[in-house]
């Protein structure tokens, strides 16, 4: 060969034509190029025709298992914060977090996106009350890759997903037996074991994969008990047909998680902890009042254990089938049945903390009755010792039980030739959510490891009426009870066509028509003015306390309701490939989100007030990959109508407000490599504002939507010190945002510094990962149950304090 001969360079995933001279000696050198940002990886989410990411006409971010390992996420939300366009709050702990896609405001949860496992929803609706979609999902060694689609075709390939689809794809076995065993320990008392194994039962035909984890830890915010305790098992069998496959899967999740909520702080411009309360590690949840045992009308007690926290038991069974019918036609069907029993128990903040004297002087029951304490005495509810607390507060002991079921089936016929890829599908899903609430309020000392308090009025003689404001530390027994059911029955037909007009130009168009019916009922929650004063079911004389004065019961008659959503969604795109390493696309999409569970409950007698949220989106994307550099830029504009706000306020009612908004912005992803150095960035710049939010005494037109910053992003440099030793640093920036729609309470901008080091020794990988090294007090939300401006001491939810974990993984 001559020195100027050219050869083909093979990329890590797919092929890329690069001119490369052969060495003077005539030796052929084949260089593997790193596939930066996986732009040459094939993505399957939100598409009829799986394409390389650089060729697809959607905004999609993907992470393979190696990247997930390097990012070392502590939860699903912690992984998703690396996706531009997604504002992700990770301050709730391992579960119960919130995701806001492209500036779409909501009360939280995963309201405008669908979370999937292997192309099917973990549960059809990701924003049911106290049932955020990440409650049913854990990131472990069974995950092969994650694909996160923003906007785009989300409304075509899923119901109620105009903000996007997030798909976690599970590993399947191959001919070679392989697996990963991993052990992790951390500064939060963490101990975790992960295992995943896969292989062939019949070579080339029948494959298996089994994996899962067990984890226990107190938590960064240590409540005095195991904050997180449990795990999951996942398994699948895949049988290869001559022209297709059959796959069966099963998942069992049984996990207990501490849910973290706003804590008391001071100095709104530069948040600080109050005396006796560490803002990085403190929590109002405590073992000192983990057991709740309160009397009920008619006899008996309602019992609860706070140490169970958010406790889902999930059983999910799936089956997937695909076959080649010949002539370019294929048939596929994906089905999943999910059953969930959720016991949800957490401490929620109420009104802001007060001095012990002010609290007693202005005491009110939850029903709003004034009972000022003229001569207050506080005692420890456990020991009876007299106490002199500095700050005290009522906190909510919220207990919710949910029984949930979901059956979903996705049937598709596909046709493909050199010029056209067509898909026609029918999606069916039915789901049920039954729930029961029993909420009480407690009186606590505001401090780390808070104590439960009793409060009496010494000016009233012992045995006198209403001498005490508490019953064993409970200020309001069962003040909010609820029994309700919501059902969804979804039928959707969808079609998508991808037309390759030329080798460079491709058109994509999709339509989906939803025929959805939601039904349910709600019990009648009653306040009984007789309370327990004259009850013969208990030995206690409740005339001596006001703790039973706000009690409610839920009973008949039941109110039944029905609501239909029949709506067409559409999306169209054009993609142009300038070269093998450069492409651009333009997409328009129109989608919707049906009213959420709380909206149905609050408006059961006036359903005509409810409307689906309508979202129009325009996107212009650009993708480029060079040998050492990759860039994905996506500009978007969104118009939003019929946004609903349903946060539950201090009085137990929802705010029940509606608005319009618009947003425009740009999402950036980039990666640069130079030898042993690499730099990864993602950033989002946007301007989400209300343009029609007035009435009911408010005028928020022109205000920025709450809890969503105008700018946020991540920069992550990494360096290989040697072939096997690597270090990285990561800086997360979150811009200023507002806690409320009125833009009264601004949450200041903050930065979070993370870092880590990893060492490979043959098949072993050791890693030390540390987060929030500087103990930044970064606020993600204020107190959504209070609509007034905060005082000098206020509630807000900060990110977790400094945390480090050490892991050892063995690949075999």
Describe the structure.
It is a single chain. The protein is mainly beta. The protein is 3% helix and 55% strand. It is built from five helices and 48 strands. The protein has a 22-stranded antiparallel beta barrel. It has a five-stranded mixed sheet with strand order 3-10-11-6-7. Strand 44 (750-761) and strand 45 (764-771) form a beta hairpin. The longest helix is centred in the first third of the chain and has 7 residues, at 65-71. Mean pLDDT is 92; it is low at 1-25. GO terms for molecular function: siderophore uptake transmembrane transporter activity. Keywords: Cell outer membrane, Ion transport, Iron, Iron transport, Membrane, Receptor, Signal, TonB box, Transmembrane, Transmembrane beta strand, Transport. This is TonB-dependent receptor. InterPro entries: Beta-barrel_TonB, Beta-barrel_TonB_sf, Plug_dom, Plug_dom_sf, TonB-dep_rcpt-like. Belongs to the TonB-dependent receptor family.
Please give a handful of descriptors for the protein shown.
five-stranded mixed sheet; globular; disordered N terminus
């Amino acid at each position: 060969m001559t020195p100027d001969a050219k050869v083909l360079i093979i990329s890590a995933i797919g092929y890329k034509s690069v001119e490369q001279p052969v060495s003077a000696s005539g030796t052929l050198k084949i260089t593997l190029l790193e596939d930066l940002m996986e732009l040459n990886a094939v993505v399957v989410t939100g598409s009829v025709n799986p394409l390389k990411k650089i060729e697809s006409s959607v905004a999609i971010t993907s992470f393979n298992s190696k990247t997930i390992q390097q990012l070392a996420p502590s939860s699903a939300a912690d992984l998703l914060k690396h996706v531009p366009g997604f504002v992700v709050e990770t301050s709730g702990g391992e579960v119960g977090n919130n995701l806001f896609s492209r500036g779409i405001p909501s009360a939280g949860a995963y309201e405008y996106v669908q979370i999937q496992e292997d192309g099917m929803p973990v549960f059809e609706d990701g924003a049911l009350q106290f049932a955020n979609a990440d409650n049913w999902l854990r990131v472990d060694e069974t995950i092969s890759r994650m694909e996160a689609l923003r906007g785009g075709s989300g409304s075509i390939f899923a119901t109620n997903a105009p903000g996007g689809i997030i798909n976690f794809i599970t590993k399947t076995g191959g001919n070679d037996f392989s697996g990963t065993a991993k052990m992790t320990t951390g500064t939060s008392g963490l101990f975790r074991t992960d295992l995943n194994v896969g292989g062939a039962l019949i070579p080339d035909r029948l494959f298996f994969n089994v994996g899962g984890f067990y984890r226990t830890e107190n938590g960064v915010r240590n409540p005095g008990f195991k904050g997180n305790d449990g795990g999951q098992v996942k398994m699948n069998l895949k049988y290869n047909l001559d022209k297709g496959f059959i796959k069966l899967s099963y998942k069992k999740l049984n996990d207990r998680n501490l849910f973290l909520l706003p804590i008391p702080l001071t100095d709104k411009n530069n948040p600080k902890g109050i005396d006796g309360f560490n803002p990085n590690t403190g929590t109002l949840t405590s073992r000192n009042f983990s057991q709740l045992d309160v009397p009920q009308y008619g006899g008996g007690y309602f019992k609860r254990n706070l140490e169970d926290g958010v406790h889902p038991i999930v059983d999910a069974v799936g089956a997937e089938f695909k076959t080649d019918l010949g002539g370019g036609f294929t048939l596929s069907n994906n089905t999943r049945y999910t059953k969930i029993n959720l016991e949800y128990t957490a401490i929620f903040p109420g009104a802001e903390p007060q001095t012990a004297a002010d609290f007693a002087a202005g005491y009110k029951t939850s029903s709003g009755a004034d009972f000022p304490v003229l001569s207050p005495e506080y005692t420890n509810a456990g020991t009876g010792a007299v106490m002199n607390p500095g700050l005290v507060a009522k906190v909510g002991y919220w207990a919710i039980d949910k029984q949930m079921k979901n059956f979903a089936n996705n049937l598709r016929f596909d046709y493909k030739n050199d010029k056209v890829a067509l898909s026609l599908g029918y999606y069916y899903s039915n789901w049920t959510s039954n729930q029961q609430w029993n909420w009480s309020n407690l009186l606590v000392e505001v401090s780390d490891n808070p104590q439960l308090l009793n409060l009496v009025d010494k000016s009233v003689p012992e045995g006198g009426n209403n001498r005490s404001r508490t019953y064993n530390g409970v200020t309001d027994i069962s003040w909010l009870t609820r029994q309700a059911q919501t059902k969804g029955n979804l039928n959707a037909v969808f079609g998508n066509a991808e037309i390759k007009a030329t080798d460079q130009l491709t058109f994509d168009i999709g339509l989906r028509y939803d025929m959805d019916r939601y039904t349910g009922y709600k019990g009648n929650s009653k306040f009984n003015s007789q309370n327990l004063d004259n009850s013969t079911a208990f030995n206690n004389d409740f005339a001596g306390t006001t703790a039973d004065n706000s009690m409610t019961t839920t009973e008949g008659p039941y109110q039944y309701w029905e609501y239909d959503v029949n709506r067409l969604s559409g999306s169209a795109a054009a993609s142009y490939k300038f070269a093998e390493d450069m492409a651009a696309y333009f997409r328009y999409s129109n989608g919707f989100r049906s009213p959420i569970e709380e909206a149905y409950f609050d408006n059961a007698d006036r359903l005509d007030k409810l409307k689906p949220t309508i979202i129009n989106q325009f996107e212009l994307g650009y993708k480029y990959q060079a040998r050492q550099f990759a860039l994905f830029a996506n500009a978007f504009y969104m118009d939003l109508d019929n946004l609903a706000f349903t946060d539950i306020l201090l009085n137990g009612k929802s705010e029940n407000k509606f608005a319009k908004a618009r947003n425009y912005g740009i999402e950036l992803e980039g990666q640069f490599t130079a030898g042993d150095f690499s730099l990864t960035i993602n950033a989002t710049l946007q301007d989400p504002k209300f343009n029609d939010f007035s009435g009911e005494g408010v005028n928020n037109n022109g205000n920025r939507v709450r809890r969503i910053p105008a700018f946020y992003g991540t920069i992550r440099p990494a360096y290989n010190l040697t072939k096997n030793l690597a270090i990285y640093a990561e800086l997360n920036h979150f811009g200023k945002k507002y806690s409320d729609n009125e833009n009264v309470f601004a949450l200041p901008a903050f930065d979070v510094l993370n870092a880590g080091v990893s060492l490979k020794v043959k098949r072993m990988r050791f890693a030390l990962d540390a987060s929030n090294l500087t103990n930044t007090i970064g606020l993600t939300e204020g107190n959504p149950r209070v609509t007034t401006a905060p005082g000098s001491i206020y509630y807000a939810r900060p990110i977790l304090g400094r945390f480090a974990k050490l892991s050892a993984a063995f690949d075999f």
